[in-house]
Amino acid sequence: MLIVKKFGGSSVADKERIMNVARRCIEDYNKGHDVVVVLSAMGKTTDRLLEMAADINPDAKKREIDMLLATGEQTSVALMAMAMGSMGVSAISLNAFQVVMHTTSEYSNAKFKRIDTERIRHELDSRKIVIVTGFQGINKYDDLTTLGRGGSDTTAVALAAALHADACEIYTDVEGVYTADPRVVPNAKKMKEITYDEMLELATLGAKVLHNRSVEMAKKYGVQLVVRSSLTEAEGTVVKEVVKMEQMLISGVAADRNTARIAVIGLKDEPGIAFKVFNLMAAHKISVDVILQSIGRDGTKDISFTVAKTDMKDALAVLEENKDRITAQRIESDDKVAKVSVVGAGMQTNTGVASGMFEALYNVGVNIRMISTSDIRITVLIDEEDVDKATRAVHDKFIPD
Ligand code: ADP
Ligand code: ASP
Ligand code: MG
After folding, report:
1. Topology of domain 2-173, CATH
2. What residues are in contact with ligand 1 under a 6 Å CB criterion?
3. Residue pLDDT, tens place only, 233-252
């Protein structure tokens, strides 16, 4: 069997944890399996590196940021190979250049294009455990790129797909995928199984237990995932196409603090204005999420929308620059907001979910600023300070104790 095992930052945060991971991987190796290990940077290394960068130059080029961030993963893979070596097992660490993991050229948000497998296969054939840097790739300029925060999960799935692995295991600091972040909602329940589609919604809406692109890729290539703890032997959650369990109305609640609201005020109420606003965002690769347009009054209208907090500065700069062209009188922004979403395939056939969610928020005095829905989710934008309270209230409304 070929097994891809991915360990997140907290699972390799210090010497003891690194030794623990090494032992778990060696167990599989000793059963005769081929083992490929994908690692994140140790503990909060990536955050620390980003702080260092911001301190030196808040407007640093993304190319240089990626060059810097990629060092985090390189540290963990080298230490892991040494740890396994100290246990008498032959292991080799490889970075994105050595594997070669080709990505698009977009720094800080690159996507995999192709992964060469010869080097990994060669090392596996000589009975080595192969330890690969997560989160990084190489673009057509031979520069290091990174895949976006949390991207090591995507490296693991991409490798599992490229190598036709028999299993892809994502080890983290909780025992699986829960009905909400177990750190915020103590009575959240671990799911035995979840579908790709529901997991993709949860991940996209802020449940950072899996990088959303890893789920997208797992669905596309049919890679079955298991999410489980690196510290306990508990069973974990399987992410796959169809689940056997009776479909619950709601599969989970997710919260996302990485969001900001922008309001473009006093636009001319005529055809083509929304197109101009969102075309500007698209041209600058800024993803827009929840959108709200007011009813026109006195020939003008307002358009509000959300972007990632990290994109707010760029979005505001572009809008200000083009204020006349889009006919805006004023542009406002607020980054003290957050999104809370309920997700569940069951809501397609049940009409009570929206009102239940709004009632739960009303009961705890949380004001809703924007609402958006799809057939399997409802998202509300609220004040950031209310996010934990809102998550718990909505969770308790739908998930029985
Ligand atoms: P890693 O470093 O292992 O990649 P992450 O911090 O990226 O770990 O993701 C794991 C964290 O995701 C958990 O510690 C938990 O707080 C958070 N989380 C958010 N939503 C969920 C959820 N629905 N189920 C499980 N964990 C969740
Ligand atoms: N180290 C990277 C991050 O902190 C990638 C990852 O953890 O998956 O975002
Ligand atoms: Mg992660």
Report:
1. Carbamate kinase (3.40.1160)
2. 8-11, 40, 150, 172-174, 177-178, 180-183, 202, 207-209, 252
3. 999 999 999 877 666 778 89
